[in-house]
Amino acid sequence: MTERSDQIAAGLDAVRRRIETAGAEAGRAEPAGLVVVTKFFPAEDVRILADLGVTDVGENRHQEAQQKAHACADLGLRWHFVGGLQSNKAAAVAGYADVVESVDRAKLLTGLQRGAHKRGATVDVLLQVSLDPPGSGGRAGVDPGELSALADRVGECGALRLRGLMAVAPLGEDPDEAFARLADVRAGLLASHPGADVLSAGMSGDLEAAIRHGATHVRVGSAVLGPRPPVL
Ligand SMILES: *Cc1c(COP(=O)(O)O)cnc(C)c1O
What we know:
Blueprint (H helix, E strand, L loop, with lengths): L2 H23 L7 E5 L5 H9 L4 E4 L2 H10 L6 E4 L8 H4 L5 E5 L5 H11 L3 E6 L18 H9 L4 E7 L8 H18 L5 E3 L6 H6 L4 E4 L1 H4 L7
Parallel strand pairs: 1-2, 1-8, 2-3, 3-4, 4-5, 5-6, 6-7
Bound molecules: pyridoxal-5'-phosphate.
């Protein structure tokens, strides 16, 4: 093993233990899944992760994601797109992403549907819901009040499959409070869309809180791979 693979193995072990402990404490029958967010890290790291049994990886920038997914196509990984999405890039993202977690407006659906169709694949969709106070103009995400209508629109796209929700806890708020709100939003969506039972929540700093509030998978970058290299 190289030094880098030792490092990643140690990070991965620690995160897997945190997920198991949090799940056990929450009385969950099965531990939450893990998507390792590999943004800013090279394709070689993705190979190491696959060797260590990781099945799902996440990326947040289209060009970088597309290149890495292409370079790692032989690994059979599931690629999750978790970043802000421009509508003119949506078709291209659906060309390699198996799960698009950051769908927050109907305008993206035409492109996603086209890209998925062209590839002959069904792309899983998570709706990114905003946990910010209304009108705060903070992070991306659909307003909880508009969620059900957006879910209906996804349902009209034959190459897309609505799987559930994704959220990021707002900066500066106790993540337990934010994820408690998320659990309520999720219950509301499940009442009208019972199949949308995936909940993607929790990152390096707050995965325990997310698991307490029902996350079915967490998205973890730095706690597995170390600090991200600075943006050039
Ligand atoms: C980068 C990123 C993560 C992972 O963040 P870490 O704090 O490094 O674990 C999770 N979700 C999204 C949407 C991200 O952009």
